[in-house]
């Protein structure tokens, strides 16, 4: 299965075209990383829509995401030349994130816009409070044209990161939780990917995948049945 086939499969599950899935939490546990899922959303926007993307790289660099993009058959430099992509790496505060979102909405006064943040947990290490980060998420939920995709790190030994991950997951419309295999190393899988959507107040749907990261991209295997 090619990378594009995998991304098409992910699109069927994540359904980024649905208007009630604007806020996306990509939750990392332990050694798992959100970059592949953040890149999936950029692939979707660049190949399936004509919408713009602003990426805030608090942790990883432009070059890192350009390399993943080329594996997923899109080019960030080309998107930038078309005025559809901008990479911002100097934001170190919640005020900066709010200003970035406001500038993005002002620059594109009609239609939806995407903001991708890698990763918002890093702001805790930079001295921002949990309350201020949650305040940014509430601000984003009240911007109907803003689609927000957030990487968020969780570790069992870091209480602040766990509280933030719980808050982001609660406020998000859809959560993609990545974790390493509990059994350790495997030749066929890197970790698990659990996708949770809040279809209604009384219905929460989960589906679980095994995923394998390789030098040339990503492979997915749907687990037998749904996880409840």
From TrEMBL:
Belongs to the ELP6 family. It comes from Acyrthosiphon pisum (Pea aphid). This is Elongator complex protein 6. GO terms for biological process: tRNA wobble uridine modification. InterPro entries: ELP6, P-loop_NTPase. It comes from the Eukaryota. Pathway: tRNA modification; 5-methoxycarbonylmethyl-2-thiouridine-tRNA biosynthesis. PANTHER family: ELONGATOR COMPLEX PROTEIN 6. GO terms for cellular component: elongator holoenzyme complex.
């Amino acid at each position: 299965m090619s990378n594009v086939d995998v991304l098409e499969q992910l699109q069927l599950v994540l359904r980024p075209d649905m208007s009630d899935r604007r806020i996306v939490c990509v939750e990392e546990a332990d050694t798992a990383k959100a970059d592949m899922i953040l890149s999936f959303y950029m692939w979707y926007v660049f190949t399936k829509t004509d919408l713009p993307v602003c990426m805030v790289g608090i942790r990883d660099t432009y070059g890192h995401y350009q390399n993943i993009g080329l594996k997923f058959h899109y080019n960030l430099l080309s998107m930038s030349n078309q005025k559809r992509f901008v990479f911002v790496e100097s934001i170190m505060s919640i005020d900066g994130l709010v200003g970035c979102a406001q500038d993005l909405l002002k620059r594109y006064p009609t239609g939806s816009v995407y903001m991708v943040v890698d990763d918002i947990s890093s702001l805790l290490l930079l001295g921002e409070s949990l309350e201020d980060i949650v305040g940014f998420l509430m601000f984003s939920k009240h911007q109907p044209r803003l689609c927000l995709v957030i990487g968020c790190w969780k570790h069992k030994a870091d209480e602040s990161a766990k509280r933030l991950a719980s808050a982001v997951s609660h406020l998000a419309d859809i959560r993609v939780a990545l974790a390493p295999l509990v059994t350790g190393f495997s030749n066929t899988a890197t970790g698990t990917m659990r996708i949770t959507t809040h279809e209604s107040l009384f219905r929460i749907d989960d589906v679980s995948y095994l995923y394998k990261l390789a030098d040339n991209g990503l492979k997915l295997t749907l687990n037998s049945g749904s996880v409840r």
